[in-house]
Amino acid sequence: MVFFFKFINFYLYYFAVICADHLIVLPCSFKYPGQEQPSDRIRAIWHMKDNRDDIIFHKDPTRVKDSFKGRTKQIGSLGDSNCSLEIDEVKNHDNGPYCFRVELETSQKDKHSFVENCVSIKMIEQASKPELQAEQSVQEGEPAVFKCSVRHTCPSYQPTLTWSHAGKAVMSYKDISHGNWEPESVLNFIPQKEDDHTSITCTVKHHGNVKGEMTATHPIFVKGTTIKLHILIPVISGLGSALLVGLLCFFIIKTRYK
């Protein structure tokens, strides 16, 4: 049997944000022809490209290099062809390249190392800044919606998003592919006149000590109900005057007719 394999990310380097106390995730997937196999019949191995005996992950921990013992974990479901790997306590020299190897437990022949698709790591310590979306101005007394989202590469430790303003916040998470995830928080609240010319801030907190800009701020401009009154009062006044003149004309004409 010939295996076919592909990484979710095809770049020469996998640009990984240190997302949780020097922890990263290498997302990958593989495929092979033939009948699908359950996870317990598939053996996943990660090894160094230059030496297949330098194993960084194996379900038998005694096979793993001493420098990687206790630091790597398979987080994908092999039965679903997900071979994603988590590396904890990442060191400066943990740059790879690393290669994935798959073996079927029920066969001595069905095995393959994908040395043509090895991956290297280039660390970026600065996390992404959150993005805040909202209208330039909101109406006093009417529901307003603010959206805040941030991209990250660490599905094991989703970041949290908090707001500087009270209201009802709803969180959602989505996989935007290629090893990236995006949590989004939607805040709903009723603006009051005291909110005018203030600002609202969304803060993202990653697991661990991740560096980078962690807030996004948006000004709040509230259109008050007094603006409507300034428009309605002259209109009502004009209609009232026209009605009064019309009634006077009606009575004058009626009197003369009599």
Which helices and strands appear, and what pairs or packs with what?
Blueprint: E1 4-6, E2 13-17, E3 24-26, E4 29-31, E5 42-48, E6 55-57, E7 72-74, E8 85-87, E9 98-104, E10 111-113, E11 120-124, E12 131-133, E13 138-139, E14 144-149, E15 160-163, E16 168-175, E17 181-189, E18 198-205, E19 215-220, E20 222-223, H1 226-257
Parallel strand pairs: 2-11, 13-20
Antiparallel strand pairs: 1-4, 3-8, 5-6, 5-9, 7-8, 9-10, 12-14, 14-17, 15-18, 16-17, 18-19
Distance between the termini: 112 Å
As for the number of domains, it is 2
Q: Note the total helix count.
A: 1
Helix content: 10-25%
Shape from CA axes? Answer: elongated
Structural class comes to: mainly beta
> What is the total tally of β strands?
20
The string of secondary-structure elements, in order, is: EEEEEEEEEEEEEEEEEEEEH
Q: Whole-number radius of gyration?
A: 31 Å
What is the name of the CATH class of the largest domain?
Answer: Mainly Beta
Percent of residues in beta strands?
A: 35-45%
The CATH homologous superfamily of the largest domain is called Immunoglobulins
Average pLDDT over all residues: 79
Task: Fill in the CATH topology of the largest domain.
Answer: Immunoglobulin-like
Examine the secondary-structure arrangement and name the CATH architecture of the largest domain. Answer: Sandwich
Keywords: Disulfide bond, Membrane, Transmembrane, Transmembrane helix
Domain Ig-like: 130-217
InterPro entries: CD80_C2-set, Ig-like_dom, Ig-like_dom_sf, Ig-like_fold
Transmembrane segments: 12-32, 231-253
